[in-house]
Structure formats: C-alpha cells, structure tokens
Amino acid sequence: MSFYDEIQKYKNFDFKAFTDKVLDNEILNIINKKNLSEQDFLALLSPKALNYIEKIACKANEIAVNNFGKTILLYAPLYISNFCINNCLYCGFSTNNNIKREMLSFEKIKENCRIIANYGIRHILLVCGENRIKTSLEYLKKSVKILEKYFDSIDLEVYPVEENEYRELFDAGVDGLTIYQETYDENLYKILHTKGTKVDYRYRIETCERAGKANYRNLSVGALLGLKDFISEVFFAGIHAQYLRKEFSHAEIGISFPRLRPAKGGFQSKTTVTDIQLVQAICAVRLFINRINITVSTRESSKLRSSIIPLGITKMSAGSSTEVGGYVKRIAKNEILSKGQFTINDVASVASVKNMIYKAGYQPVMKDMF
Predict the structure, then answer these.
(1) Taking the domains of the chain in order of start, what are their residue ranges?
(2) Cα atoms in the 13 Å half-sphere on the side-chain side of 209
(3) What is the pTM of this model?
(4) Structural contact between residues 299 and 258, judged by C-beta atoms closer than 8 angstroms
(5) Are 274 and 288 in contact (CB under 8 A)?
(6) Tens digit of pLDDT for each residue in 38-90?
(7) What is the DSSP letter of 300?
(8) Phi, psi of 259 (to 5 degrees)
(9) Per the CATH hierarchy, to which homologous superfamily does domain 3-365 belong?
(10) How many angstroms separate the CA atoms of 275 and 280, rounded?
C-alpha cells in the first residue's frame, strides 16, 4: 500500500457538490475542533469558509506559534543544471523549449556556494532538471559533498530515484527531499507531461515514501496551483502530507503551494488561484496538520509574503535565482544569462527579506532547528 492506493477512494468524489453544501455552523465547529478529519479539512477549503477567513487565520497563527514559535527559516535554491528529458508544458526547462542548456562544473558549484553562504544562508535546496545522463547520481553525490562544506542542511529537488539511491545521497550528506506532484489529477497529469520519465504518475507520487524509508528527516510535497481547480489540489496535497506524517514519524513534513509563474514556452492556464485562496490553503493546512512546515517561495511578491507571515509560514526562500549558476551570473552581469525555470516575483535581497521578517515581529533563522 502507498499513498497512490490511499487516494483511490476519492477517484469519483464530487468535490464541488461536497463543498457547495458546507454550512456556516460546520465551519465554526471545525475552527474550534482540536483534531480535524479529512472532511473537516475539505470544508475549510470551501467557498463558505471564506466568510470566516479571519477566524481561521487567527487559529492558524495560534497553532503555528505554539508549534514553531515566531521564527521563519530562510533558505536558497541552487540550480546546477537545466538539462531535462521531460516535456512538462508549464516548465521553462522543458525539453521542447529552445533555451541555453548548462550544467555547472564542480568549481562553478563552489563559486555559487561561496556567494550564497556569504548571504548568511545555511539551508540550501539543490535543484536540477531531470536528466540522469547529464546529472548522474555520482555527479549529485559529489555536488552534495561540496555543499556540505558551506551549508548546515541540504535538501534535494531533483529527479526521483530508488530507495537505495536515496540512501546513497543521504550517506553523502542530504537531509531532505522536496518533490511536487504538480497536479494530483492523474488524467490531467498525463496531458501535461508528454515525454520523459516524469510521465509515470505513480512513481512520482510515491517518491517521498522511498526517501522516507531511506531515513530522510525532511519530506516536502505540494501542488503547482493553477493547473487545476484550487480545492481538490490543495486537499490532495494536504492529505498526502498527513499520510507521510503518519508513515514516517521520524521526519518533519513540509508543504508548499507554488502558483504558476511566467516561463519559457508561454503556457497559459485556464485556472487562476487568487491571493485569498492561497491564504485559505495555508490556513486550512495549518488547522488540519498542526505541526507542518509551510513554505512560501519567491514566486510570490514581497508584499504578499510579508502579509502572510503570521498565518503559519515557517520557511521562506530569499535572494533566490532560478537560473543555473545564477548567483555568480548576478554578480558578473556580463555573463550571458540562461532562462530560469520560472520568473521570480520577489527579487529582494536576503538582508531585505530578513528585515521584512523582523518588521512582522518574527525572527529569521538561517539554520534548521527542528
């Protein structure tokens, strides 16, 4: 059994019919409950719940402070390659896109590490496109060994691998894994992913379970909002996180709800996820799973990120670049820039993000303490 089997019970579930019937008194009762069921969580994602978003937000803040204090962990992504064999219609790295393809040498990785470390960042997210020939397991392990010299914690956002390979990466120094299902709708998934190893929906959805069995201490999931309807995607991401929390009690579980951003290829979604819906998602997840890391990246604007800090956010990226070796290029400026995976929204420096967090009454932390 895996989470793939778990979600089959919702295969023919009518989300709209359920959420349209949610009543005011149900929402008020749920806000006051200590332990929420999956149905309670779904009710908090309903249109009716928006009438009580301030009450829900207050409860989310209370729960977050009780579990994490008033701290926000800062991290940065380091892109080491944009070679990719997948055709994901919404992604700038898609194999069908005509972009400059790059893979960092180990010396270039060191140069970027030095810059990021000088910002004060101690938690790094290692990112690459999905191409096992260009970015082999050995290349990843050697990269991790370099990162270990500069950072206290290393998470991966790379192509899915087998359990024994996750163990090799864990032994090399990796702490955690971030993997987005993109969309939990299996039929839509097949439409959006037309080429490459990523076409295997089940293999991807079971990725965190393989890493969990390899003793990873951080496991993070999420959906790319804007590919399908807001309610079902957030719901499935939430129950996915809850499943991992129960199966891997040794690990800290995280979740993120990145929204679509402009990228090479010009993918246009028919679905728009509003700011208030993002707030609703964050608050609902916090009430459903009290102890969960919730990440908001630089896909969102500085203004929005500042305003949602009290809602239960525990992690933020800062000073980010989604280009391969982008930190060195940013300083050099005369280098030819490759296309990033997506267009960043919050371009503020790490110092500015820290100041923003202080102004919100929170403490930015540079090393994962959980």
Answers:
(1) 3-365
(2) 16
(3) 0.94
(4) yes
(5) no
(6) 999 999 999 999 999 999 999 999 999 999 999 999 999 999 999 999 999 98
(7) S
(8) -100, 150
(9) Aldolase class I (3.20.20.70)
(10) 9
